[in-house]
Design goal:
- It is a single chain.
- A hairpin with a 2-residue loop joins strand 8 and strand 9.
- The strands form three sheets. The protein has a five-stranded antiparallel beta sheet, covered by helices on one side. The chain has a two-stranded antiparallel sheet with strand order 1-6.
- The termini are far apart.
- The longest helix has 31 residues.
- The chain has 187 residues and is an alpha+beta fold.
- It is built from three helices and nine strands; from the N terminus they run H-H-E-E-H-E-E-E-E-E-E-E.
- About 6% of the residues have low confidence.
Length: 187
């Protein structure tokens, strides 16, 4: 064999090979990053249904004992956003009487109110229930055979000021979602 005919590569990559690799990485990133962000939002969203179910079970136990449902204003206080917040329910707050407190911080804001579901004010969700010295529930929401309470979770996981919400009531354990609307909260 003629030594001149043998092409001997000295190592390294050509510019074209490097450009092809960069293009492939770019395509993979364009596919993977949105999927990853969607997965993150899904995992954050799973908090609300789990906590709503736990609040509903606590409400049913409380109503069986005291004959009323617990009302509670929104916790944590403030506007929901993309960052976790500390659960700041005080000892006189409705959630405290239910015995409900999520472990750690939360993305959503939770409230319990009368059956009337509002989308522009806190009026339906400001009935914090208390227990008096004799052990009787004060300020609770009546327990009747119809829909008496609505338990809601509102959040803004992506920080775009469009709040998405979940809710359920005491008469139906199905958790329903409310699509994000322009800056309105469910309570």
């Amino acid at each position: 064999m003629d030594a001149r005919k043998i092409y001997r590569r000295q190592g390294g990559f050509t510019l074209i090979e490097l450009m092809i690799v960069v293009v492939i990485i770019g395509i993979l990133a364009a596919i993977a990053i949105p999927q990853f962000l969607r997965y993150q939002l899904k995992s954050k969203t799973s908090e609300a249904p789990r906590n709503l179910g736990a609040i509903r079970i606590a409400e049913e136990a409380f109503a069986a004992k005291y004959g009323v449902f617990v009302g509670s204003s929104a916790v944590p206080t403030g506007t929901p956003g993309p960052k976790r917040k500390s659960w700041d329910a005080t000892s006189t707050h409705g959630f405290t009487f239910l015995g409900f407190s999520p472990s750690g911080t939360v993305y959503y804001q939770y409230a319990i109110g009368s059956a009337a579901l509002t989308t522009n004010g806190a009026s339906a969700y400001n009935a914090d229930t208390t227990i008096d010295a004799s052990g009787e529930a004060q300020g609770g929401l009546a327990a009747t055979s119809g829909i008496d309470i609505t338990i809601a979770a509102t959040g803004d996981l992506d920080g775009n000021t469009l709040f998405g919400s979940f809710y359920l009531n005491d008469d139906n354990s199905e958790i329903r979602g409310v699509p994000p609307t322009s800056g309105e909260t469910i309570f």
